[in-house]
Amino acid sequence: MTAQAGPRGGRRAAVSDRAARIPRGNLAELFVLARERGAIDLAVGTPGAPETPRPLVEEAVRALRGGANQYEFPQGGADVRRRIAESFTTPADPDTELTITVGGTEALCVALFSLVDPGDEVVVLDPYYENFLGAIELAGARPRFVRLHEPEGPHAPDWRLDPDELAAAFGPTTRAIILNTPANPTGQTLTAEDFELIAALCERWDVTVIADEVYANLVFDDREHLSVADVPSLRDRSVVVGSLSKSHAISGWRLGFLRARPELTAVFRRVHEITTNGAAAPLQLAAGLTDLFDAGSLTAAKELARARDEAADILSGMGLTFRTPRGGCFILADIRGATDEDCRTYVRRVLEESAVLLAPGTPFFADEERGRHYVRVAFNRSPQVLADARRRLLP
After folding, report:
1. Domain spans of the chain, in order of start
2. Using N-to-C axis directions, what is the helix angle for 383-393 and 295-317, rounded to 10°?
3. 52-70: per-residue pLDDT in tens?
4. What is the number of alpha carbons within 13 Å of residue 51 lying toward its C-beta?
5. How many Cβ atoms are within 10 Å of 293's Cβ, its own excluded?
6. pTM for the full predicted model
């Protein structure tokens, strides 16, 4: 790390300790190789399906040409907040409980910056979305991992939470717990029983729940999404992180949101003004003028359920095993039925032999040894892309 002279002639780091500790991206080298080989990317979740709704695009063009090119109110446009609020199962006040953010990523960071102090602990279920750790680090807090136990057979429960292990993770320095339902990378969803267990611990230790629900509209097989905001015992101590990136295939628009009770929302909005001062005005206007929050998301879920089944069939043909995702856009697959290699070696070999890029599993686990047997596969791809992947992987 580059150093510079301190005020008394000593040497100090040029960057903050917390910035230096942010985990580095784990796919950079593989992406370079994938591009060189013209590989099919099944590693990242950038939507290849569903298609971006044409009415959204047309409204965005109309907004840009109509002059909506300056700042919107920092809390977000009234129309898009109202549309999002109307899509919830449990009502929310769009004026006092919703804030539009620059994607779900900013929403997560704003929530953590607002809720935790340096040295506090944040409970994280393991495996997890790897960006959780970077956001916790930036907030100066420490993650406290709770292991989700792998299914042990075809009829065993999905990735499951042990009540005693969860309880042991809470203590006087616990300020928040981050949940992700449907989850990246497992695709599993939390149950009402899970939420009640978490609620009791949060009440005991005065802990806030930050629920990453960016895949809320991508739940499959006629299931209904259960939000933390739908659980009465958690309603007043919960924060929902949401996004339109995957459900509406507009990840480049960077439209996310925070839902919380009015007292927290007022704080979030102040922090949000300092971090970004608001999301893109014309894109918010476009989203607020299109009636796609229910019907459009339903169509996306059905389309991605078919893509999930196609990807699952391909992975089964490769000898991989996994729990069928209940939602989201990823499959976390165990490679031990197909190889004795670790996941990074396996991913590299598949890339070289088949020109298909998968994501190694280690970045999603606190214990690298535990993650070495897994790969993550993104299935939010078009039928043509999945058909090409099948031909390459199952010649």
Report:
1. 18-52+295-393, 55-288
2. 10
3. 999 999 999 999 999 999 9
4. 6
5. 21
6. 0.93
